[in-house]
Here is the input.
Amino acid sequence: MGTSTSSSGPGGGVSFDPPWLDDLSVQVGGGNGNNEEIDDANAQGDAPPGQPETLPPDMAPPRRFANARLSIGKFAREGGGRETFNKAVGHYSKKGMGGAGRVASRMRNSSKVAAQLANFLGVASTSADPNITQWVQDVSSQDLSPSEIIDEIVRHVAPSMGQRDEESSSDSMAQAMSEFLEKHQDRDLLHLEEPEIREITELFIANEAYNRLINDIGQIFERSILTPRDSVRLCQEMREYLTADISVQIQALWKENSNPTQLQLNKILTSAIENTFTVYEDGI
Here is the structure.
């Protein structure tokens, strides 16, 4: 599960944040491949002819993802590895996205949806809202399978209107809950404890960060230099690194406020994303 890598990723000379992002946030209730990677970075990152070298501070620079793509290409060709992955994400954050703060800004819809999901699961578990309690009773009375309950939660918390980020959030939400149930098969998603809700939230944010990386710099994982099995294994390794690193940051900040409101949790998750990518930048 995950978003497609068919996109070539954003290039330079455009805003770090797409113009529709704020509107979307409101809506939410074999070979070595060296030459191929270098050519790919040039083709997708260079500024158009005549574009000035100096860009406004909110505009992405030319060849913004060149170093990140070279590093992720090395990660793929060497069969994985924590150090190479960290450098790839560090380059992605620092130059490709203009810094960890901009990564967090680009992912602000992810933070908002994750906070909505966590708040919903908490209210559903405590029966704190009559409307949600009624919704839970209606869903429970249908004798649905766990996967069908996940679908109902996704439709209720974050219905997609077709935007790529919305589809990514829906996908990440479903995957986070599915992964949680794989580890905790006896648990009921509509009656969870706070640590379990936090675990699902961490998985959601990690999936969203992974989707961003794959969409922006992960084109190599579609190419014939990797077997399908190796591509899946490497992508899973990336996801595990992200989950571990993001989990550390979320737990540290959530611990400071054990019962955050939805707005407070949104801020916690935004800070956790920024802190995570700051650590990656510090490693390059």
Observations:
- Confidence is low (pLDDT under 50) at residues 1-6, 23-55.
- The two ends are 30 Å apart (CA to CA).
- DSSP finds twelve helices and no strands in the chain.
